[in-house]
Amino acid sequence: MGNIEMAATGNMNLFLKKSLFYQKMTISLGLNNIVAPKARSYIKEDEFTSRTERTGAMLCRYASFAIQYRFNSGKRFNAKSIESGSQEDLMRLGGY
User: Is residue 32 pLDDT above 60, yes or no?
Assistant: First the structure.
């Protein structure tokens, strides 16, 4: 915008994921914002130059760890259904 230049910022993340117990449990580890760049902006005019560096929670490095467990993973059950007559009988009796 005008005389303001924004320096390039990048983001590098690394995630590892491992399934255990026949894919019932998943463990994941993540490293976010490994490079942790600073947000830089420059204001350039003929007789004035300003450089600003910002840091904050969004620009910090952090790690994440998660465990997920699926109970009864892969098991299905059969639901019994009860038929109450033919479609013709339902319509004759005022059913839907």
Answer: yes
